[in-house]
TrEMBL record:
The gene is pyrE. Orotate binds at residues 125, 153. This is Orotate phosphoribosyltransferase. Pathway: Pyrimidine metabolism; UMP biosynthesis via de novo pathway; UMP from orotate: step 1/2. It catalyses: orotidine 5'-phosphate + diphosphate = orotate + 5-phospho-alpha-D-ribose 1-diphosphate. Homodimer. Belongs to the purine/pyrimidine phosphoribosyltransferase family. PyrE subfamily. Catalyzes the transfer of a ribosyl phosphate group from 5-phosphoribose 1-diphosphate to orotate, leading to the formation of orotidine monophosphate (OMP). It is an enzyme of class 2 (transferase). Gene3D superfamilies: 3.40.50.2020. It holds the Pfam family Pribosyltran. It comes from the Archaea. Keywords: Glycosyltransferase, Magnesium, Pyrimidine biosynthesis, Transferase.
């Protein structure tokens, strides 16, 4: 079993839940993927970090994502990159600015203005989290150059990102994880 297949198996056994559930986007789905359970697993963190690292544009100097879903992904990619000789700074994007201190949306090392950043997320439905992450990074003077997810649910997020000038890359799509019901 190769690394991609191992990660898919972990997603199926540890993160997939079948049945009706309301997603953060407000949509109702027939399945839910809790990728945090996988990325917080030692093997899942390594596999996620390695596979996403392989997808990151060589010009990127940092990897960033919206808290909480992207936090373990950002950390895994940064650590696996360092171990393999590619240092990528880790940036965590807050949902809301702090009401004390600097009031920053983006936490992590201060990078030069215009630094190129890969933006990651765990599961993409509408793309809202990635769009908000891109806006926050631009607001801090960074240049988001790509978007990557563990799973594209194939429910419009890719198209929305495309409309904003970004191509969504993902390790997996819904069809890899959950076959569509032919009756729906």
């Amino acid at each position: 079993m190769d690394e991609r297949e191992k990660l898919l198996e972990l997603l199926r056994t540890e993160g997939l839940r079948l049945g009706k559930i309301t997603l953060s986007s407000g949509k109702v789905s027939d399945y839910y993927v809790d990728a945090r359970k996988v990325v917080l697993h030692p093997e899942g963190a390594y596999l996620t970090g390695k596979l996403i690292l392989e997808m990151i544009d060589p010009e990127a100097v940092a990897v960033a994502g919206m808290t909480l879903g992207a936090d373990p992904i950002v950390a895994a990619v940064s650590v696996v990159g360092h171990l393999g000789g590619r240092d990528l700074s880790a940036l965590i994007i807050r949902k809301e600015a702090k009401d004390h201190g600097t009031g920053k949306f983006v936490e992590g090392p201060t990078l030069p203005q215009g630094s190129k950043v890969a933006v990651v997320d765990d599961v993409v439905t509408t793309g809202s989290s990635l769009i908000k992450s891109i806006e926050r990074l631009k607001g801090e003077g960074y240049d988001p150059i790509q978007t990557i997810a563990i799973l594209d649910r194939e429910e419009g997020g890719s198209e929305r990102l495309s409309g904003a000038g970004y191509r969504l890359e993902s390790i997996f799509t819904r069809s890899d994880l959950v076959p569509r019901d032919p009756s729906s």
